[in-house]
Amino acid sequence: MADFAFTRQDETHVAAATTKTVPLTCHGHSRPITHVSFSSLPASTANSAAPSSQYYMISACKDNNPMLRDGLTGDWIGTFIGHKGAVWSSKLSEDASLAATGSADFSAKVWDTFTGECITTLAHEHIVRSVAFPPVSGRVGVLATAGMEKKLRVFDLSRATGGDSTANGSPYTNGASTTNCSSTTPSYEIAPGEHQGAIKSLIWSHQDPNLLTTAADDKQLRWFDLRVPSPIATYTLPSPPPQPPPTTRQEPSPSPPAKTSTSSTRPNQAC
Q1: C-alpha Rg value of the chain to the nearest Å
Q2: Where is the composition biased (Pro residues) (predicted)?
Q3: Structural domains for the chain
Q4: To which H or E segment does residue 44 belong?
Q5: Per-residue model confidence as pLDDT tens digits over 215-241
Q6: Where is 43: in which H helix or E strand?
Q7: 133 CB contacts (<8 Å, ≥6 apart)?
């Protein structure tokens, strides 16, 4: 975001300074973006206006290629190559050393953000819609996943085996090479059979690393404690109001309709 200041006069003719924020456009993705997340602000930056070089943004996209960027400038750092389907979720670990992505290729992948290498691939039985690292500094060996399986899983990354990756060229690439990896990683399902619909969102609590929250297509929000085998709380979302029946003709508008504008996104011109 770029800030600049200008002055204006109100009805009292008193000049006042106003700061306008101009959004930055990050080019690179060629299809719709499904998810964007940021790393945690370093302690020195959270309480200071000074910029930090360790603040990152990761974006998931239907072009199969999640991208890592500088969180302040939006500058491209690298593209994680390896997924064979749309990427629905992308998250960074608390210290930003790892990235996790969930995809329509029935897998979640964990990446080294410094080298771009795929550390491990976590196979699933259906589309992975959400991934999450625990928000605890130094505890990057655990990853939660959820999706169309209707299962909430927790993987122990510290015990992954067979996760060697191979690449033709640098794993960080603009699309010229690919990275493949696979492994056997211990995991367990939290509250089996609890979800009756696809899980669309997963959040790890910042207050307690044992608490997870899910949102599913069965209109339920659920709170889980990893130390308890069933949800500790649930909330049923209200149903949307019924839609009026379709009409066969359109009534004339008493006033001119509001103007709208649309634009098509060309490849490599949107992020």
Answers
A1: 22
A2: 238-257
A3: 33-41+54-162+181-236 (2.130.10.10)
A4: helix 43-46
A5: 999 999 999 999 888 999 999 988 866
A6: helix 43-46
A7: 91, 92, 93, 94, 98, 100, 140, 142, 143, 144, 204
Residue-wise pLDDT tens digits, 142-181: 999 999 999 999 999 887 764 433 322 233 333 323 334 5
Residues 6 or more apart whose CB falls under 8 angstroms from that of 244 comprise none
Q: 108, 101 in Cβ contact below 8 A?
A: yes
Count the Cβ atoms, other than its own, within 10 Å of residue 82.
24
Decide: residue 245, CB within 10 A, 0-12 exposed, 13-18 middle, 19+ buried.
exposed
Of the candidates 73, 76, 41, the one whose C-alpha atom is nearest the C-alpha of residue 55 is 41
Reported pTM: 0.72
DSSP three-state, residue 45? helix
Q: Tell me how far the alpha carbon of residue 58 is from its chain's centroid.
A: 7
